[in-house]
């Protein structure tokens, strides 16, 4: 099955090391050889890079990592084809305009599209995948809300529509997806095949919360390239490191705005948000492959951080909504994540 990676942060963030690990899954350590894509937002517009080739050997993806693209919203995908031939038209993430904004969508799963399932309205698929048809259906559901709004509609209304969409596609097969409208990042966790020959099972997505508060002179080996005083949330199909990734239960939908958890499906597991990051993780705590990466990366400057889980956090603050609504209530988590920031990017 395909793999997803998405990031929402309070300030522009570089993810070149996370992209490096994701690229390894795209043909080296994983079977996802049928294409890759990266979408990142800047000034309300999205740049989308895609190739119908393995990510592990892509010169374009290597160029993007070396450029160290920075954004407060990323959506990334590596493909293992299930429906539709290998080709650019079937390569994710997909992007469409709605309400004067570019909306981006990526899906991991395999939907059984029976006759009449997921009507697309005025949005028509370009390729043959179930994922693109699902995206067109979602945009059709959001169409009236966005066309009648000046700026992003209320988050509560968007959340309700995406939640209904998630329930509908979940009934058709594995339906892990990330969707971004240029402001909010929506992530839905279902089930996925974790190894060849296995039956699908939860979790379909994992999440990692981080809160950076100060600079540190010590390089750290994995995750984000960031600024001080910054919050970030990463969502991925599989943990991209040994940090405190949290599995998201089946049917859970979360919404992240500017690195803050803004809303979540009620009645599911408690969320974890990061406490201030105060100290570096020792290199001795890393796997051998990460130690090697640390030495290689240190000559070019630090890129990320590694955390550990300790203690009990205070209750999570109320949900955020730029339109004035408050998302579903959340509860204190059992753990908090503490890690280490790195130096400011130059």
Kindly describe this structure:
This protein has one domain (3-264): 4-Layer Sandwich (Glutamine Phosphoribosylpyrophosphate, subunit 1, domain 1). It is built from five helices and 15 strands. The protein has helices at residues 16-25, 59-67, 130-147, 155-170, 288-298; strands at residues 3-14, 36-42, 45-51, 70-78, 94-98, 101-109, 175-180, 184-189, 205-212, 230-236, 246-248, 252-257, 260-264, 308-310, 336-338. The protein has a seven-stranded antiparallel β-sheet, covered by helices on one side. The chain has a six-stranded antiparallel β-sheet with strand order 5-6-7-8-12-13. Strands 14-15 form a two-stranded antiparallel sheet. The longest helix is centred in the middle third of the chain and has 18 residues, at 130-147.
How are the secondary structure elements laid out?
Layout: E1 3-14, H1 16-25, E2 36-42, E3 45-51, H2 59-67, E4 70-78, E5 94-98, E6 101-109, H3 130-147, H4 155-170, E7 175-180, E8 184-189, E9 205-212, E10 230-236, E11 246-248, E12 252-257, E13 260-264, H5 288-298, E14 308-310, E15 336-338
Antiparallel strand pairs: 1-4, 1-10, 2-3, 2-4, 5-6, 6-7, 7-8, 8-12, 9-10, 9-11, 12-13, 14-15
